[in-house]
């Protein structure tokens, strides 16, 4: 069962509006612009109007999309993309804005959180002196150019990560770093899986470290465990929660109460870790 970034953000009780009127419900925010799902739901020719509303002490502009296929009011905030409201035809602006007033807090929180487009949530430039989170600790990045040749190397030593790289263009550094994190992930996740499995004693296949935008981990039918290297940027308690979550899937394939009870054996605070990921997951990159 995959732990999906998109799916997990979609059920977050902390980010959902508290109560929705009976005929109205809201779609949760999508955190990524991976919108094939979204575009499939929306006919190409739907009219879109730009509107504005005063909410609290700010004026918020939003796009109002009318879709014959929509059954209810749907609110979406995407990184860098602002607020979009989709309604069935015939819903008045007064009705939309009445619902928006009820959701003021949710809307303003989401707009602040997703003001930036994906890929720029962490704005720190990757230069010498940049502090990188790593497996619950921190590393100071040191960039060097090789004296000879173009070979890239990365050495971690006493809180420093020394990256020797011929081309220090941001994208080159970023991908060299990601490759390094991914290699480290093999060691870190193997160690954490072994640690928590002393409790569960499940048998599993191989452990693979993935570079994925929308999944933290997964457990295949064959019992192979996959983890996202970006978890190395998260607190250890969060990384451990995903390890425990995927280990628990070796026994329980779905997210049933039995599954969560199994997770809770090693991670009683799993709700807290899950909420942390929903909130901060999109920031786990450089
Ligand atoms: Zn799961």
Descriptive terms for the model:
4-stranded mixed beta sheet; 2 domains; 286 residues; 8 helices; globular; Zincin-like; alpha/beta; binds zinc ion
Annotated CATH architecture of the largest domain: 2-Layer Sandwich
Overall radius of gyration: 22 Å
Q: Given the C-alpha coordinates, what overall shape results?
A: globular
Fraction of residues in H or I helices: 25-40%
In total, how many beta strands? 12
Quick summary:
This protein has 286 residues and is α/β, with parallel strands linked by helices.
Describe the protein in words:
It is a single chain. The relative contact order is 0.13. A four-stranded mixed β-sheet has the order 1-11-12-10. A four-stranded mixed β-sheet has the order 2-3-5-4, with helices on one face. The protein has helices spanning 5-10, 36-41, 93-102, 104-113, 170-200, 236-249, 257-266, 270-280, and strands spanning 3-4, 48-55, 58-66, 74-78, 82-87, 131-134, 137-144, 153-157, 160-164, 207-210, 215-219, 225-228. Helix 6 packs across helix 7 (257-266). Mean pLDDT is 79; it is low at 1-45 and 117-122. It has two domains: 20-113, no CATH class; 131-283, 2-Layer Sandwich (Zincin-like). The chain has 286 residues and is an alpha/beta fold. The two termini are 27 Å apart. Residues 1, 3, 245, 249, 255 line the site of zinc ion.
């Amino acid at each position: 069962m995959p732990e999906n970034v998109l799916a997990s953000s979609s059920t977050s009780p902390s980010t959902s509006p508290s109560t929705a009127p009976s005929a109205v419900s809201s779609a949760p925010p999508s955190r990524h612009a991976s919108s094939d799902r979204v575009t499939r739901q929306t006919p190409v020719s739907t009219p879109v109007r730009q509107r504005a509303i005063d909410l609290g002490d700010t004026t918020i502009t939003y796009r109002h999309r009318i879709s014959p296929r929509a059954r209810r009011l749907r609110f979406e905030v995407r990184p860098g993309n602002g607020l979009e409201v989709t309604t069935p035809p015939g819903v008045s602006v007064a009705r939309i804005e009445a619902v928006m007033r009820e959701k003021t807090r949710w809307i303003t929180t989401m707009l602040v959180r997703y003001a930036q487009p994906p890929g720029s949530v962490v704005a720190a430039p990757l230069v010498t002196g940049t502090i990188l989170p790593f497996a619950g600790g921190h590393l100071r990045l040191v960039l060097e150019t090789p004296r000879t040749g173009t070979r890239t190397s990365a050495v971690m030593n006493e809180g420093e990560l020394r990256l020797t790289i011929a081309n220090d263009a941001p994208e080159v550094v970023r991908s060299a770093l990601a490759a390094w994190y991914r290699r480290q992930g093999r060691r870190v996740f193997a160690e954490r899986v072994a640690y928590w499995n002393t409790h569960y004693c499940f048998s599993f296949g191989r452990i693979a470290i993935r570079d994925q935008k929308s999944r933290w981990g997964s457990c295949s039918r064959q019992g192979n465990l996959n983890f996202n290297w970006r978890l190395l940027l998260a607190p250890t308690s969060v990384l451990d929660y995903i390890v425990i979550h995927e280990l628990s899937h070796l026994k329980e394939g779905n997210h049933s109460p039995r599954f969560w009870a199994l997770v809770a054996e090693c991670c009683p605070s799993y709700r807290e870790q899950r909420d942390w990921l929903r909130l901060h997951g999109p920031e786990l990159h450089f």
